[in-house]
Amino acid sequence: MDKLWLIIKREYLTRVTRRSFILATLLTPLAFALFFVVVGLIFQYESDDSKRIAVIDESGMLGGVLKDEENLFFKFTTQPLAELRAGFEESDFDGILLVPPLDDILSRRHTVFYYAPKQPTLDIESLIRARLSERLRDYKIEALALDPAQLEALDTRIELEPEPIDENSQDASKLTGAIAAAIGGIMGIVMYLVVFIYGMMVMRSVMEEKTSRIVEVMISSVRPFQLMLGKIVGVGAVGLTQVAIWVVLIPVLILIASLVFGIDSSAQLEMAQQQPGAAAFDPNDAEAMAALALQEFQSLNWWAILPLFIFFFLGGYFLYSSLFAAVGSAMGDDLGEGQSLTIPITIPVIIAFYIMIVAVQAPNSSLAVWASIFPLFAPIVMPARLAFSPPVWEIALSIGLLAATSIFFVWLSGRIYRVGILMYGKKITLRELGKWMFYKD
Amino acid sequence: MADHILVLEDIVKAYDRHLAVDRVSFAVPRGSIFGLLGPNGAGKTSLIRIITTITQADEGQVWLDGQRLHSRHPEQIGYMPEERGLYKKMKVGDHLLYLARLKGLSKTEAKARLTSWMEKFGIVDWWGKKVEELSKGMQQKIQFIATVVHEPKLLILDEPFSGLDPVNANLIKDEIYQLREQGMSIIFSTHRMEQVEEVCERIVLINKGRNILEGKVSEVKDRFKENRFRIDYKGELPEGLLSQVKVVGQSAGQITVEVSEDAQANALLRELLDKGVYVQAFNEILPTLNQIFIQQVNPAETYG
To answer: What domain range includes position B260?
Structure first.
């Protein structure tokens, strides 16, 4: 145990004190914050060239009123079109809008004309259309003598409020599903990255020790299994450290960045939802949504989710990194040659990733349920389902199977590793790896 | 058994239908330097891995210091493999400390011993250097220190001088002699026969997994001698003098003869002196270990 501890300590300390580790750990959150700032600034950017548009209202429907925008000004004029067009160069207008009369009040289409040296840009076009459509609506209401209040009442927004069957269980709000899906998705992606980044780290390190013949020196003092386990635990601790730092630093830096650059995240939300033709977004609605989301976020059972996440993190990491260690031990000096050996490991990870994407949308589908119990997929799929509070028996079964499988795989990989690290100059096939498991010591 | 640090009895080890070690037995006397010889692929490394408990023999027994080999024994063995590496990014001091502590030394003990070794080699200022800054020969010194720092009872050195310049090779060699004086037993594995002749007292020769020769170096050489003598002389040899011996080589002032028994050589020398030949040198030609090695490993070829 003393030796194992020494190995773990070395593996951990040499990595976390390396400059490249410190840089990656600190720069990644910075990169996230930078990305956030850039995206925020892009969304906040608005067309800065203001346009003046001459409006000829032949129909008289507009009543001389068309609301200006920050960078778009409407100027009603009675000058004839021909005159305006002739004197366009000298005028300070950027375009001329001609609104012909409406033939039929019940018509659902109306064509207006826009005269300008250049095609209208998309934002101007959609603004003009929205403004005119609004005004025409008001005009029609008046012309048809309709009751605006009754008209408003025609549109009914449906809000689905989920309620539990069991009176005692916690009440969920309409956002629960979305929040849980977001959190589950993030957890699943983190797990996917963890398996690849740190599993590969273990594999490369095992390979280096083998090709530089360090193992030859080491195994006269320690058992190969100790060496392998020490490395897996050490690198795992490095991974936990890095992820923990990121979990703290990324939100903090993003918060600081948004304060410094004055980026309002609800502005992004607004922009994202504001598509041509869509109803105007109510900022009050956004605030209420954000508050509800925050409340939902807080109401999740983090005391259960976080420890479980750490468990699946460790289980998945041990399971896959031990396999990567076994493959690393079999590789020779040629990285490319051994690459094919990693395929059987990466395939289940990638499959699990896709199942995870489906699982956050339908967390209780039988695919999601069984994949989150199957040990090779569980480390990625189960964390994605945790926020949906799956039944306890499913979590327990998943944990039990994952723990048993991880221990079994670590043991199995140890059997391969002890043969592999001392084997040189042979092209290794999967069949051969299988045989090594049964070698005597 | 008491006067042997290591005893191997009928060791057999097979890898995947290939017999690497086939009933090898030998014993290493306490406090001696023992040569483990053999061509590439003879099974030396397999044997060493069994002795260092890296692998286990399929059959046979290994006794270290009178005890059946067990898992705590590696702490009493120092093994410097032929293919050896160090963590390049680690500092020399940290690396040595790590290896010493893996051999069971406490931190303070390890530090004290390492410091005294580094003082001995005059390399104390390397402590804070990174391993990758050292040359191959310098790294070898570090490896040697790491191999002996826990004062093992048995030291196994596989090609310890490869890559060392003559000055540093001598430095290590002197240390090996000193360690033997302190009672350490040393197994020395190499292809360099002149080193074996110089350093080892006993040898075992392994070929194709089998033990084909074992004994004291002087005895082994004696066993393979062909009773040949070289005589350097001045003047003329009298006629008929060499009729009773077989002349195998002759040049100006030198003659090589083969006798059928040792007494014949004495008679020949006496006769030469009686006949007034001025004898400058009279030497028995013993085969070198190199010749014995080549002859034993490739019986088709003979040495001359």
So the answer is: 226-285
